[in-house]
């Protein structure tokens, strides 16, 4: 048996960590502001060793208060979406499942639209209401889907259909609110295309606890996802309670998705592309897919954000556009190679 398909080897894990460190380093050294990567590197060394900084106070602020927090936030959001996508694919045994499947995107979009419409001066607030509303809306959408699915008898198929119904209902509310306030449409769609325009470390500290807790739960549940893959009856015979496992995994994945959406808007395809690349490179066991999706998602979105903020600098592309350019063709490839499993 090929052991790389059933467990995560130290060598593979080390490669993933090194790739993440490389992505963070390169994205911190390079940016839209022309500071010179060698000068930024010397600034980092100076901060670590107590030496003399080669940057002005303003340039140092760009590195430490703008660029580095944004890189770390991209890593957190990418990790959250990718690991949630892997978890959803394991729960539903469907390679096309993504983190927004149960209404998180629709709930977040509706809540964000209501905030934009009802609180146009939100930028003047001490604590921005938009991230909090998106977080609550994403969890609310998943909660409505879960309640509707349970009332209809439960089961994964019923839960998926409930997600479609809830998403359609919440999207209708969002569209209605936009039509009543057409001057806010541009702001809403800018948020929906995704972005990582941070105001510093606040967004990183806001999302880190939720994503960290969810990531720990999902990594600890990876072995149980492998058991679920053989079928509910077989899993039950091994002492696993499929319904309870699905509940815990979906709660953790939804929490991570909600935290990501709250600070980044709706960034598509990360939860589909990254888990499948991991499967192609390292194996199909969720004990491999879940932790490597966590690392791979962080690398993927850091690179995507680097492109978004430098390709047309000083302007900036929505990061959702970058991920769609990569993800849409990959989605077609996944659909063609897994057509027997998604019928």
TrEMBL record:
UniProt keyword list: Cell membrane, Membrane, Transmembrane, Transmembrane helix, Transport
InterPro entries in the record: ABC_BtuC-like, ABC_transptr_permease_BtuC
Transmembrane segments: 71-88, 100-123, 129-149, 156-177, 204-225, 245-278, 284-303, 315-335
Any single biological process term in GO: siderophore-iron import into cell
One term of GO molecular function: transmembrane transporter activity
Major site of localization recorded for this protein: membrane
Membrane-related topology note: Multi-pass membrane protein
Assigned protein family: Belongs to the binding-protein-dependent transport system permease family. FecCD subfamily.
Protein name: Iron complex transport system permease protein
Species per Swiss-Prot/TrEMBL record: Actinokineospora iranica
